[in-house]
Design a protein that fits this description.
3 domains, Ribonucleotide Reductase Protein R1, domain 1, OB fold (Dihydrolipoamide Acetyltransferase, E2P), binds zinc ion, binds magnesium ion, 8 helices, alpha/beta, binds guanosine-5'-triphosphate, Rossmann fold
Length: 325
């Protein structure tokens, strides 16, 4: 290829750090910058020290125009660096309302086949409303959800049977322990040859499970706080890792808060697969399923066909969406 010919190729974004994106292509992995027209939209929501002019924020649709997992077109410049020219259409995305004051989307992970929501039975105790938010976002973003219930070695008699709650709703639950190895082979088989998004609260053991599946990854993990049982936000940025068995797994930093993006109050109940079958017979066509009489969803709740925990999550989310944030 002549020196004057620009070498354009397709790749997948596997890491990002302060505006530099590692893009894996068939010619190798390149550290890529964004072309300036794309850069305009790049804002880091977590960093309060940055201020942006109206011009900069005027026309953005997401805080991050490029997400981990995105398929992109890159132009190689010299050797190991390149520039991202274009983001190709996404088949799925895990998005949330970006933390911060502005109402903008934050695309966390693009193009994954499924979301593996990792929660621990203890240390930290599972926050089911956070889990339900992730499950709704997966549904909205065209990702198949799988629940991995980790630290099963710590479970005690009398603990709530979370696996049973979610299995009854039709979700697939993998009980696991990165310490004893329980469920690790099943998780490995589930991730094989697919693009998997891993998400959950800090300290749930997301990274530990990946290390247990593939010790060669050697990713950093850290003990949870002994007194509070909370994680210490050990994984600090999103990164995709190749699996020896085939496939790509995207580990993510622990999630503190998760507000839905681009979900309307009306479509919310449809995003709870366990509720879908109970929405048709309500007296009012615009029933919110919160307070109206003759509501088939609340009748299903009373009959025990819909779980109280899931319904509580629905009501909390509905109020949040109706309230505008
Ligand atoms: N008992 C027990 N401890 C576990 C298990 N899995 C992980 N841990 C421990 O939990 C702590 C947190 O694990 P990490 O893998 O760092 O958790 P994480 O979800 O990646 O956390 P962030 O990166 O902060 O989001 C570590 O001390 C692990 O050794 C498990 O199955 N059982
Ligand atoms: Mg981690
Ligand atoms: Zn209703």
């Amino acid at each position: 290829m002549g020196a004057a010919i620009v070498n354009s190729t397709e790749g997948i974004v596997i890491r990002e750090h302060r505006g530099v994106f590692d893009v894996e292509t068939r010619h190798g992995t390149f550290a890529c910058a964004l072309r300036s027209r794309m850069k305009k939209a790049l804002i880091y929501p977590e960093r309060d020290d940055q201020h942006h002019s109206v011009e900069q924020v005027g026309r953005i649709d997401a805080v991050n125009p490029v997400a981990i997992g995105d398929r992109v077109r890159v132009v190689e410049d010299q050797g190991e660096t390149g520039a991202i020219e274009e983001v190709l259409p996404r088949r799925s995305k895990l998005s949330r309302l970006a933390p911060g004051k502005r109402r903008v989307e934050q695309i966390m992970i693009a193009n994954a086949d499924h979301l593996v929501a990792v929660f621990s039975v203890r240390d930290p105790r599972p926050n089911l409303q956070l889990l339900d938010r992730l499950l709704v976002a997966a549904e909205a973003g065209n990702l198949a959800p799988v629940i991995c219930l980790n630290k099963i070695d710590l479970s005690k008699d009398g603990d709530p049977d979370i696996a049973a709650i979610y299995e009854r709703c039709g979700f697939r639950v993998i009980p696991a322990s990165a310490v004893t190895g329980e469920g690790v082979d099943l998780l490995k088989a589930t991730l094989r040859n697919r693009i998997s998004a891993i998400a959950g609260p800090s300290g749930a053991g997301k990274t530990s499970l990946l290390n247990a599946m593939q010790p060669g990854l050697g990713l950093r993990v850290r003990e949870v706080n002994r007194t509070t049982g909370r994680g210490r936000h050990t994984t600090t940025y999103l990164a995709a890792h190749r699996l020896d068995a085939g496939g790509l797994v995207i580990d993510s930093p622990g999630i503190r808060e998760f507000s839905l993006w681009d979900v309307s109050p009306r479509e919310l109940p449809e995003l709870f697969p366990d509720m879908r079958g109970h929405l048709a017979g309500c007296r009012f066509h615009d029933c919110t399923h919160v307070h109206e009489p003759d509501c088939t969803l609340r009748a299903a709740l009373a009959a025990g066909d819909v779980s109280q925990e899931r319904y509580d999550s629905y009501v909390a989310l509905r109020k949040e969406l109706d309230g505008g944030r």
